[in-house]
Amino acid sequence: MQKKQIFTYSLKIIFSGILLFWLYKNGALDFSMLWNCPQPIYLVTAFFVFFLVTVIGNYRWHLLLSSQSRSYSFFFTLKLSLMGLFFNFALPSSVGGDVLKAYYLSRADAHLSKSKAMISVFVDRVLGLLAMLSLAIVSIFWNYDKISANLQLRSIALVISALFVFLCLFTIAAFSKFLSHSRFHKINHLPLGPTFMHVYQSISSFGEKKSLVLRCLILSVVVQSVAVFFFIFVAQALGSNELPWGLFFFAVPIGFVAMAIPLSPGGLGIGQLAFYSLYNIFLGYESQVGVLSISIFQIYQLFFGLLGLFFFVIHKNAHKHEASAT
Q: In terms of pTM, does the model score above 0.70?
């Protein structure tokens, strides 16, 4: 690991720690509510919902991979996905888990290059982000009266709408052969131009499989919707049965988008601040449900990530034995 990466990762940990400490000191992060939650059975339900989110998300990536190379077992790709969960926390890069998934996938398949494996992960991420923003846009229309009457909510809705339009245009351009047209041939003469065009052509090849992309996009919407129900169940566990569903379909996708900003490992701190702010702005009063819900989400994420670490250690030991045998 390079010194620059260690320094950057250290800064991210410090930044996360500062945010979490600030929330705690201001009384916004009080885990005593968890110990005394009136309906803990819903936390168990949320645990299985989280696992379902992981399984469906892995199935989406599994479908994308099946279109690129030979078929892999679902359990094999699930192990890689769980390993990715852990290394999203543990590696200095915000995409560390994705890089690791692509690396081990390419090692398992001699016919699949590292770049193609990474592109499959990238496309999977783009479709997931597009689904998040799509759900957020639907929730903006759903809660139009409430949002239009609140300046902060209107500002958030405007930013999300702009991001949605940008990502739609990006996706259309990426999945089409637009840049492959002869009028863009000069790109190949630019620094890193050939590399850019190679990556672009690999991504745009998915555009030829429209039914596959549509299926994966639908799965992405299903994943995000199921994730919203995770937060609904946690709210039930905390005794907040009165919260409107419109809150969850508005705050959760936008909160996840905020956590995608590579400023902290696994979105720690950023997630807490985003969900705390979004819930409170929407509700119009202070509540700890949002900040506690995302904290539970991250705890479950780390639990399944540790399961991924277990698979990673087994995988590493197996390779060591193979190397010593040869």
A: yes
